[in-house]
Amino acid sequence: MKADKLSERKQKILKAVVDEYINNASPISSGEIKAKYFDDISSATIRNELSALEEMGYLIQPHTSAGRIPSKEAYALYVDRFLDKQPLRKEEIALIENAFKDRFDEIEDIVRRTARVISDVTNYTSVIVLKNINKVVLKEIKLIDLDQHTVLLVIITDSGIIRDKVITLRSDVNLDYVRDANIMLNRIFAGKTISEIKMPDGMIEENMAEFRELYESVIAILESYAESAEDTVYMDGQSKFLEYPEHDLKTTRDFLQIVDTKERLAEIIEDDTDIEFSVRIGKDEKGGIDKCAIVTAKYMLNGKEIGHAGVIGPERMDYSKVMRVLKYITKALGEIADGGNNDKKRID
Amino acid sequence: MKADKLSERKQKILKAVVDEYINNASPISSGEIKAKYFDDISSATIRNELSALEEMGYLIQPHTSAGRIPSKEAYALYVDRFLDKQPLRKEEIALIENAFKDRFDEIEDIVRRTARVISDVTNYTSVIVLKNINKVVLKEIKLIDLDQHTVLLVIITDSGIIRDKVITLRSDVNLDYVRDANIMLNRIFAGKTISEIKMPDGMIEENMAEFRELYESVIAILESYAESAEDTVYMDGQSKFLEYPEHDLKTTRDFLQIVDTKERLAEIIEDDTDIEFSVRIGKDEKGGIDKCAIVTAKYMLNGKEIGHAGVIGPERMDYSKVMRVLKYITKALGEIADGGNNDKKRID
DNA sequence: TTTAGCAGTCGATGGATAAGATTGCTAACA
DNA sequence: TGTTAGCAATCTTATCCATCGACTGCTAAA
Fold first, then answer.
1. How many domains does chain A have?
2. What is the spatial distance between Cα B134 and Cα B191, in angstroms, rounded to a whole number?
3. A259 and A207 in one domain?
4. Alpha-carbon dihedral sign for residues B93, B95, B101, B104
5. pTM of the model
6. What is the domain extent for residue A127?
7. DSSP characters for A261-287?
8. Which residues of B touch A168 (CB under 8 A)?
9. pLDDT tens digits, residue range A297-314?
10. How far is A217 from chain B (nearest CA, A)?
11. Any idea what the CATH number is for the domain that residue A198 is in?
12. Nearest residue to nucleotide C20 when comparing alpha carbons to its C1'?
């Protein structure tokens, strides 16, 4: 099933079928192709070609008296070789830029907006998976005393992710104690990844004895972060899923189950992480959703890869548009938040 | 349509119809009721009663040769007067207790678990709306210097909610500066609700001049919190929505749209906030989802009302069970995290 | 007031039929 | 050898119709 074996004409016909099916979601007949794409050959000829393409596995006939629809392989080939490279429309670009024109500081805020705008522009459900915190490097730890028995632990990482957690202690704490403990902890943890941090088996160093309870609490929290392999998942535009007629109740059930168990979704999306775009069509051994396609791209922010962003839609997804949008947005965001200056920036 | 006018027998019949419909989702015939609920009267008599109940608006006949199904009014009456008060089953209680047996410190963590367990036990989609932060009282503000131009603002409220936001400044900052600013800001803000805080029209006090930029940033952030009326919404078990046959594609579309626009959901749920349970059946002028019921209860934590928790399901929801579960859980959580000691507690 | 009996109504089911769409095949053609 | 016109075959979809079964509503009697 090498694509190289396809004649020019077969390619043109196959692309025609995919393009038409993406727009109309109904099987395409030889007559339709003849009318819209070919002046010079007859529908009978096209029928022969269609028959050959079906033989090769690129097309499927739902039943004898129906036209053809593309197979998974056709979509894969389409994504690989036939993508139109039309630029994004002005309104689309305006929509994207508008979403990011305000000030914003926190990653969560940026991510939410990104999810929203991806869904708005593509008209598919968007999904963003942020890498688990234990894969990033600790830049600094801050301890803040809240009251006599509680301190707030703030974790700052190299890509700016901030997590905080309240620690409750049996012993009393005061400002000086917390400050000293903070210095001590930073000496130990700064520069390591969370997953590198282990509870030391033997004795705690002499000069740590005073901070033992606090120290153990912090370690326990970091370890629990490391253990909980759950990446954070954001979604938007879930209702868009039902705008596509092939998404019947059964498919929607699968979809909602994926939505519920976000860990599985994160696994699917982070599976092949080394390529720029990941396109998963239909359900296979490695996961996915039947009758659906999942397209994701690396999600860069401030020059760092912080996760993956993409969409979930029907197999006959408008791959071209989705990829252009993802490319545009991830590029825009890769630049937008650099160097600590988070004021508005033009995206050109 | 006063319920008082209903004879004992009518009430028993009406309850029978609702109970049966909750279990089977198909119209109930006079013969069925006779078989399962009455030995002493004939189906003809029951037919007469059914006819009367239909006349009164409590029952609906989908078509002439079908049995009856309950109307919205029947459900409302059912919730009002007919609820079984069977206790929760052992397994259900075990499930709930198990979900909360670990240590946990952060509200978000508790809320997520609560959403999960409500959905698991009831088998409906759960939803929790946390009150907007601007309705709660500021307990303390913490400033932490991150680097030369950025400080982290941590907001601690009376119910323990913590929000943080990074502030970027043009001028340099250092430890002393931040500490002094922190003391100053707490003097001004502590004890107020976020919505009370307003940017002062005239001059900033003399001794604030030094902290002007920081001060204005903090005010701006608090105001933006106050303005953004969005309450935080958590959901779980969305896929459960499709386990009920009356939830067809159209209803699911409505449901997913509500899921997408969580603000609207928050509005619906926070609408009638003064009663212990809110039961909204079907769609009316004030919102809701067609063919669905939304049941919510006040969500207490640590003695404070922090929002609402509930479920979304079909109109023929198992109201009795849902209310028992919500009562049990909100009661359990009202006790579980009191006094800063977050260790395991028995729920009895 | 209750009940048995029965006619009437309606949905669901299934078969038969017809119409329409599209293909595959064949044979002729360039 | 590739292309094409023509046509039979196949399958879907819609419609109609008859039948069956499930209830109800009504009537008249208990």
1. 3
2. 12
3. no
4. negative
5. 0.81
6. 90-131+231-342
7. -HHHHHHHHHSS-SSSEEEEES-BTTB
8. 105, 340-342
9. 999 877 778 889 999 999
10. 12
11. 3.30.390.60
12. A65
